[in-house]
Amino acid sequence: MRINTKLCTLLGVEYPILQGGMAWVSTAELAAAVSEAGGLGIIGSGHAPTEWLEEQISKAKRLTNKPFGVNIMLMSPFTEQNMQLIIQERVPVVTTGAGNPGKYVPALKGIGTKVIPVVASVALGQRMARAGVDALIAEGGESGGHIGELHTMPLVPQVVDAVDIPVIAAGGFFDGRGLVAALALGAQGIQMGTRFMCASECTVHDNVKGVIIKAKDRETVVTGRTTGHPVRVVRNKLTRHFEERERQGASPDELEKLGAGRLRMAMVEGDIQQGSVMAGQICAMVKKIEPAADIIQDIIGGAEQVIGRLARGEF
Ligand code: TUI
Q: Are residues 158 and 262 in the same domain?
């Protein structure tokens, strides 16, 4: 049996598994490895300037002939130029986060780029569907990084019921059990970030991989609720200081400044105490560094076994 959903046809991929486009983490090396393995690899552009993204896109094109994507973080000051670059380079898929990409949809669709925004609510999902996007990623608060209010289990079926385009579930996925659960909720695929951070091809600092591999079930916390930009990160010296200042009533402005530059500090420089180690709650299940292809085969093999077991009535 092949787990081949309509999403696979839409994206031109073998398996319905997207790799989250994580800022400072998802470089061309990781994205190309995931795409080569039959999933959809996604370069994470975060706050990076357009020259960096240009280099990454050309590297990804050298490393794979398969479709790949770019994630645009809509709070970035380089969004406009990065979107122009994506159009110029005819990147096959664009995912967006932390905002509403509506105004870019006509131009992207005009050149055949598939547009897939991340949404954290039903209302935004419906608005995006009306704007003509190709699919949605419904991302629950189990995810690492910038998150919304709802968790994956209530969010995904509500988004599925509210739109008539494919929905990809994100937040808390790790193995074949999760993929089958997402399909059961009506999603056509999953997006995973945290597990791919520990792919051998991922260029994130080794200290960060070490933190993820050691993490236990309650290791992540959400900071920044008072700033309106809640972020899930692994607990460390920075989060303890941040939480203390939040309790003491620090202004959103001070807290935003406290967080500035911290993601790069962790992911690139490897400062796992003072940097922001964004990771999802599922980090506790990540136990080893392994090639992206093995991760994908583990998920697909596991999902086939689960489906077989359920079909035989072995609950
Ligand atoms: O974008 C993400 N996750 C991210 S982006 C990021 S980079 C960063 N760096 C420093 C500080 C903060 C972030 C790290 N993690 N996920 C996609 C996502 N989008 N999750 C939630 C949303 C979202 C939230 C509200 C999307 C739209 C939205 O509303 C927009 C509107 O206009 O209604």
A: no
